[in-house]
């Protein structure tokens, strides 16, 4: 009975965390209605979340400090740069050009990229089952994306490419950081990486922008705060708790509701719709990722 309750609570926690993560794209699209730049919006998200992660980094100590080497902190800087700064920046830029629902479908291919990158750089083997799943996934993305190109603007290809870069950089982060997380623990490692990412965003702003960030309406700052707390900090802990209760493999299967929840939220808040062909493509993508998830453990995207 207790096991059943644990599973049920884990499923509920996982669903809430995934839906909150999915809401980030909706908030970004809503904020763009106020003519805010991608750099400023990302800056608001990171600045609002920074105090929380600094507190976490201060109070939650590394899991196995005796195994940590000095170079490991340099690797955290690198992975914080590519995994949270670059991936988030490409994501925010891409959302300027494509629908939130399509963004989540493209981002959802990152587990296939993890397998491909691991094969190229770590010489891991790819099973026949995984190859089939990858082919299914990309077939679904092509169907979904083709349906968008037929009806949307010329910027759709650019937006899709930027979102793909986001998935690629995040997948690279997952592959490279896998050996660091056992040393630091999920929570401290995430906090350190997010702090590094915030520094990178601030540096980007100071070097490449420098325009004032105090000219926007209250809604922009409020959406930035919601992205930081509701779609970043809270779901990151919910997902960690869900993985602890259910296991990474079971959680990754539940994670398949991510694109679906984004499509639903985009319909409610943005009046976005996908054609029947695109919905079929999304379903094919979810099938492909579900097949891969049954074989390989994955980490949820922040």
Automatic annotation (TrEMBL):
<protein>
    <submittedName>
        <fullName>EamA domain-containing membrane protein RarD</fullName>
    </submittedName>
</protein>
<feature type="transmembrane region" description="Helical">
    <location>
        <begin position="155"/>
        <end position="174"/>
    </location>
</feature>
<comment type="similarity">
    <text>Belongs to the EamA transporter family.</text>
</comment>
<keyword id="KW-0812">Transmembrane</keyword>
<dbReference type="InterPro" id="IPR050638">
    <property type="entry name" value="AA-Vitamin_Transporters"/>
</dbReference>
<feature type="transmembrane region" description="Helical">
    <location>
        <begin position="72"/>
        <end position="93"/>
    </location>
</feature>
<feature type="domain" description="EamA">
    <location>
        <begin position="9"/>
        <end position="145"/>
    </location>
</feature>
<feature type="transmembrane region" description="Helical">
    <location>
        <begin position="251"/>
        <end position="270"/>
    </location>
</feature>
<feature type="transmembrane region" description="Helical">
    <location>
        <begin position="186"/>
        <end position="207"/>
    </location>
</feature>
<dbReference type="InterPro" id="IPR000620">
    <property type="entry name" value="EamA_dom"/>
</dbReference>
<dbReference type="Pfam" id="PF00892">
    <property type="entry name" value="EamA"/>
</dbReference>
<feature type="transmembrane region" description="Helical">
    <location>
        <begin position="131"/>
        <end position="149"/>
    </location>
</feature>
<feature type="transmembrane region" description="Helical">
    <location>
        <begin position="213"/>
        <end position="239"/>
    </location>
</feature>
<dbReference type="InterPro" id="IPR037185">
    <property type="entry name" value="EmrE-like"/>
</dbReference>
<dbReference type="GO" id="GO:0016020">
    <property type="term" value="C:membrane"/>
</dbReference>
<keyword id="KW-1133">Transmembrane helix</keyword>
<feature type="transmembrane region" description="Helical">
    <location>
        <begin position="38"/>
        <end position="60"/>
    </location>
</feature>
<feature type="transmembrane region" description="Helical">
    <location>
        <begin position="276"/>
        <end position="293"/>
    </location>
</feature>
<feature type="domain" description="EamA">
    <location>
        <begin position="158"/>
        <end position="293"/>
    </location>
</feature>
<keyword id="KW-0472">Membrane</keyword>
<feature type="transmembrane region" description="Helical">
    <location>
        <begin position="105"/>
        <end position="122"/>
    </location>
</feature>
<feature type="transmembrane region" description="Helical">
    <location>
        <begin position="12"/>
        <end position="32"/>
    </location>
</feature>
């Amino acid at each position: 009975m207790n096991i059943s309750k644990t599973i049920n609570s884990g499923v509920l926690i996982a669903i809430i965390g995934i839906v909150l993560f999915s809401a980030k794209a909706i908030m970004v699209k809503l904020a763009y209605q106020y003519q805010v730049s991608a750099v400023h919006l990302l800056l608001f998200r990171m600045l609002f979340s920074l105090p929380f992660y600094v507190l976490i980094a201060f109070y939650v100590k590394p899991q196995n400090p005796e195994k940590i080497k000095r170079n490991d902190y340099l690797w955290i800087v690198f992975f914080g740069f590519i995994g949270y700064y670059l991936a988030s920046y490409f994501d925010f830029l891409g959302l300027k050009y494509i629908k939130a629902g399509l963004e989540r479908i493209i981002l959802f291919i990152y587990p296939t990229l993890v397998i491909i990158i691991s094969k190229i750089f770590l010489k891991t083997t790819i099973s026949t089952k995984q190859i089939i799943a990858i082919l299914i996934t990309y077939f679904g993305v092509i169907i979904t994306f083709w349906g968008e190109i037929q009806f949307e603007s010329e910027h759709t290809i650019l937006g899709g490419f930027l979102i793909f870069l986001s998935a690629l950089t995040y997948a690279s982060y997952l592959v490279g950081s896998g050996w660091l997380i056992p040393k630091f623990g999920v929570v401290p490692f995430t906090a350190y990486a997010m702090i590094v990412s915030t520094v990178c965003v601030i540096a980007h702003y100071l070097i490449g922008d420098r325009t004032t960030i105090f000219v926007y309406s209250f809604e922009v700052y409020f959406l930035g705060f919601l992205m930081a707390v509701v779609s970043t900090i809270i779901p990151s802990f919910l997902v960690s708790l869900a993985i602890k209760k259910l296991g990474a493999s079971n959680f990754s299967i539940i994670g398949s509701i991510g694109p679906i929840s984004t499509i639903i939220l985009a319909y409610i808040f943005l009046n976005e719709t996908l054609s029947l062909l695109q919905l079929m493509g999304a379903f094919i993508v979810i099938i492909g990722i579900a097949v891969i998830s049954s074989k390989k453990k994955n980490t949820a995207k922040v």
